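Input (structure):
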């Protein structure tokens, strides 16, 4: 192709979920179709080897869900495609679900006789109706956006409060677990796979002070180095939007020794792109035809 620049695709999960309110999962059969299309049509290269001067495609995954190992790895291998996996290192081997999965489980799935949820988040009072499925969906989104920039301890406390109000208790489901150490090591040893850091606990970095950000950014790399006996120099920002990092954050990423850092801001990574702000394009649970349409749109972007 005559156009230059790397199209970086962002996936999170390869799984068939009952509830997926944030569109994090792509079904295994559809991911297989995506990989087949990419194999036939594109020059797919590892992220760290992309030149950004010719049109190439790189595949990335964020977070470190176990299905990255149990599902995505095999599909990628069958297609002969490389990929980079960014790992939230503090979750490796943990059974406890991510806060957003726990929130969705409690608000959208658990049966309750309660009619509303009322709590204070960041000194702001929220009252939300949960008397219908539509009301629950609205409440779930309102809570998600209120909780997202909050510190993890405060999020956990809010979720405990919600469970108490509803008279329910969340459970840690097998389908929402994280990779354990053995799975991560096996994934890292797979052909075409590179591993990067995604902080220790997946915080909204800009709402932490500089020292807390440093611990999350450097700590994520150190844990990977210890587990995999190598030096991780690839990073992705949790949440990844333009409001999720700033110049302090990127400066700390540079100081920590990362050479590439990915956002979740859409676009093409051109040769003059800041290597610590590589744009990525989120892929949905799309059938082959829709995926190919999006791929055409992205690939023809100047």
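Output (sequence):
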């Amino acid at each position: 192709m005559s156009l230059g620049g790397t199209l970086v695709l962002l996936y999170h999960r390869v799984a068939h979920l009952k509830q997926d309110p944030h569109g994090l999962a792509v079904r295994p059969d559809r991911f297989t179709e995506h990989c087949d299309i990419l194999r036939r049509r594109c020059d797919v290269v590892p992220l760290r080897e992309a030149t950004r001067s010719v049109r190439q495609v790189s595949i990335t995954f964020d977070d470190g869900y176990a299905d990255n190992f149990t599902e995505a790895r095999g599909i990628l291998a069958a297609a002969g495609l490389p990929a980079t996996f960014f790992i939230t290192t503090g979750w490796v081997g943990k059974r406890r679900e991510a806060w957003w999965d726990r929130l969705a489980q409690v608000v959208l799935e658990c049966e309750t006789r309660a009619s509303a949820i009322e709590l204070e988040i960041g000194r702001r009072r929220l009252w939300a109706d949960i008397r219908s499925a539509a009301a629950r969906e609205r409440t779930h989104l309102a809570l998600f956006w209120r909780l997202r920039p909050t510190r993890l301890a405060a999020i956990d406390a809010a979720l405990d409060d919600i469970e108490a109000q509803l008279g329910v208790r969340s459970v840690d489901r097998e389908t929402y677990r994280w990779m354990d150490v053995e799975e991560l090591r096996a994934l890292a040893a797979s052909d075409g796979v590179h591993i990067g850091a995604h902080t220790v606990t997946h915080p909204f970095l800009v709402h932490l002070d500089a020292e807390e950000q440093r611990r999350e950014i450097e700590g994520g790399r150190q844990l990977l180095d210890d587990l995999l006996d190598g030096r991780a120099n690839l990073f992705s920002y949790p949440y990844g939007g333009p409001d999720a990092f700033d110049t302090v954050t990127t400066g700390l990423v540079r100081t920590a020794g990362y050479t590439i850092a990915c956002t979740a801001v859409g676009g093409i990574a051109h040769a003059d792109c800041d290597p610590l702000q590589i744009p990525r394009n989120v892929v949905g649970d799309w059938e082959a035809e829709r995926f190919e349409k999006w791929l055409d749109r992205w690939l023809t972007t100047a």
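Notes: The two ends are 12 Å apart (CA to CA). Residues 93 and 182 are 9 Å apart (CA to CA).
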